[in-house]
């Protein structure tokens, strides 16, 4: 990181630690928007991390934006910062204006979920993150290449739903809505690539959340005394926590490799596509194994309303299946490997990325 980029990341961590507390997260689950937290994010320019300075943004690198997203996941941030970053990246790619208001992305799972005739948008999309809380919906559709549309949520019908973490994951219906803005995305970005970028966003968030869950688990094991000594002294538990640490290392390595591949050309190109498929495939096992160990060590304590652990694990369980399950991405990864052919399999597996 450069000195400027390090300042951005340190600022993000400080804000998240101070303002994304258990009380704030619980209040957000009860429907209370965390004004102080989002105001601090706006003032620090974190929602504009990926936007070039000429467009009024911070102009940080893509990798530094992913570092902010990982920090947001580590803090179980109850606001759509990651979604706003990705939405802003898409708008900037299309040459549209990006503001500091909270935004979210609308990425239909099936091509027929939304119908765009060039003027108006119709259809229904489920599981839209924070739809009821944002000022703008950034919709990606296909049609003569990728198209990005900016829609006022007030012009839609929003059915309030929640994910496993209690966050707003709403169903949005567009009844012939005319977007506020529209633009064509560049050739390297379409709906499938936008969904891949969103899948990577969840992998990076999950890597951060699993890291915090591991820290909480180690701390609790050192403090919890049973049979006259800390439970961290028991060999069986040490083996479980070591396996948990291995899962955290694996998903961090996979997510970071995918982020680096996407950052290389500021796009989800062929190499990034493969790395994202690998990371999303790896996410399932990391979440399943890591969350299980964390709750086994904590016992009932980890599920209490006041404890931080369930804020992380419930998000992990929600994120692991978003934007394609491990089965979906495993099939994509398998097909890509088959396309390499036998002669390219070993060279591609052992290839070293260009450090530049």
Describe what is shown at a glance.
The chain has eleven helices and ten strands. The protein is of the alpha+beta class. The chain has two domains: 3-184, Beta Barrel (Butyryl-CoA Dehydrogenase, subunit A, domain 2), CATH 2.40.110; 191-350, Butyryl-CoA Dehydrogenase, subunit A, domain 3 (Up-down Bundle).
Task: Describe, in plain words, how this protein is organized in 3D.
With 356 residues, the protein is an alpha+beta fold. It has two domains: 3-184, Butyryl-CoA Dehydrogenase, subunit A, domain 2 (Beta Barrel); 191-350, Butyryl-CoA Dehydrogenase, subunit A, domain 3, CATH 1.20.140.10. The protein is built from eleven helices and ten strands. The protein has helices spanning 3-19, 22-29, 35-44, 62-74, 81-93, 191-223, 235-265, 270-298, 309-319, 326-340, 342-350, and strands spanning 103-106, 114-116, 121-129, 136-142, 146-151, 157-159, 169-177, 181-184, 225-226, 229-230. The chain has a four-stranded mixed beta sheet with strand order 1-4-5-8, covered by helices on one side. A four-stranded antiparallel beta sheet has the order 2-3-7-6, with no helix packed on it. Helix 8 runs antiparallel to helix 10 (326-340). The radius of gyration is 20 Å and the shape is globular. The model has no long low-confidence stretch (mean pLDDT 91).
């Amino acid at each position: 990181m450069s000195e400027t980029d390090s300042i951005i990341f340190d600022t993000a961590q400080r804000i998240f630690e101070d303002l994304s507390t258990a009380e704030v997260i619980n209040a957000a689950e009860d429907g209370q928007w965390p004004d102080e937290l989002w105001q601090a994010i706006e003032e620090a320019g974190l929602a504009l991390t990926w936007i070039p300075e000429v467009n009024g943004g911070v102009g940080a690198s893509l990798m530094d934006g992913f570092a902010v997203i990982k920090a947001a996941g580590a803090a179980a941030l109850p606001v759509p910062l990651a979604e706003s970053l990705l939405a802003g990246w898409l708008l900037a790619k299309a040459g549209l204006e990006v503001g500091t208001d909270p935004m979210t992305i609308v990425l239909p799972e099936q091509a027929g979920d939304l119908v765009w005739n060039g003027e108006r948008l119709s259809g229904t999309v489920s599981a839209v993150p924070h739809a009821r809380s944002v000022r703008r919906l950034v919709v990606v559709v296909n049609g003569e290449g990728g198209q990005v549309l900016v829609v006022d949520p007030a012009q839609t019908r929003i059915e309030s739903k929640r994910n496993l973490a209690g966050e707003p994951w709403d169903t949005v219906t567009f009844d012939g809505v005319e977007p506020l803005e529209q633009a064509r995305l560049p050739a390297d970005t379409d709906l499938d690539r936008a969904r891949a970028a969103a899948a990577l966003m969840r992998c990076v968030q999950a890597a951060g959340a699993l890291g915090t869950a591991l820290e909480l688990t180690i701390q609790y094991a050192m403090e919890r005394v049973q049979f006259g000594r800390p439970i961290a002294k028991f060999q069986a538990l040490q083996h479980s926590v070591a396996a948990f640490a291995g899962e955290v290392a694996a998903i961090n390595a996979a997510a970071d490799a995918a982020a680096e591949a996407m950052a290389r050309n500021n796009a989800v190109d062929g190499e990034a596509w493969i790395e994202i498929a690998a990371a999303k495939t790896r996410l399932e096992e990391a979440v399943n194994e890591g969350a299980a160990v964390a709750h086994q060590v904590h016992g009932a304590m980890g599920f209490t309303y006041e404890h931080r652990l369930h804020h992380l694990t419930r998000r992990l369980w929600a994120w692991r299946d978003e934007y394609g399950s491990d089965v979906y991405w495993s099939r994509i990864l398998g097909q890509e490997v088959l396309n390499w052919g036998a002669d390219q399999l070993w060279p591609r597996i052992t290839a070293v990325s260009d450090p530049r």
